[in-house]
Amino acid sequence: MELRVSDRVPELTALLSVVSLAAVFGAVGGVVPASLLPRAPDAVVNAIPHINAVLSTTALVTIPLAVRAARRGRIGRHRALMVTTLGLFAAFLACYLYRLTLRGTTAFPGPDAVYQYVYLPTLGVHILLAIACVPLLYYVALLALTRPIPAIRDSLHPRVGRVAASLWFISFLLGDVVYLLLYVVY
Fold it and tell me: In the record, which residues are listed under signal peptide (predicted)?
């Protein structure tokens, strides 16, 4: 009996999602010792939030362009833009987790009322959407990578992809709002 990746997309999605989220929660929870990571100069570590804001903002451009390309039947362009967005996300996540492991979370410097009624709800929704996006993104990416283009159109990829792209876009947007509140406004 031959096992093919295309026959195991839900199982692989679940496995990759669990491993990925475990890595994120491990970094957030301080399970990964900072001593295991190579130490970048302080200027580089301090620049990570700003680099991540650029990565997020760039993704806010590539996601709608990719959706538009798919709607126009420009599948090669759609694929290139989505692979680019996945690369932006991977770079963002690597930088974020690196800085988080070395420095921990960043305290909100603004007024308590803004923290309680603006920052925390924005951050909470951003985090929930980011977590929800992980399995959706793995699922649509695995469907796209394991099927010929005509079969992708007949799979759940278009339907799940619309949801994933929308949630991903909102998550990136809210991430930029969190950045602005932490590093620009206050």
Answer: none
